[in-house]
Amino acid sequence: QVQLVESGGGLVQAGGSLRLSCAASGLTLANYVVDWYRQAPGKERDPVATITSARSIYYLNSVKGRFTVSRDDAKNTVYLQMNDLKAEDTGSYYCRAGSNWGQGTQVTVSP
Length: 111
Known about the structure:
mainly beta
């Protein structure tokens, strides 16, 4: 059974940092394009970071220089390091590998 499990969300003050994890079972993340999505309250779910099988990386412009996506193949986990967090980064964060989604983890940034 394929499962993606996000963790690492929480409440943080503006300027703080969090590291999100997306741990996979039933599939090998290195074989997929893995995306991190963010869904702010009342808004659509939008991609914020992508890492490909070849480790090509893409970011939403608003998070460039603050967020870093990486993959640990030994742990079959993709990470999203988020620094200098802003109130507008608040939302639920989801990872996606192919058609598989995790359940999400909540990030709340207080002003």
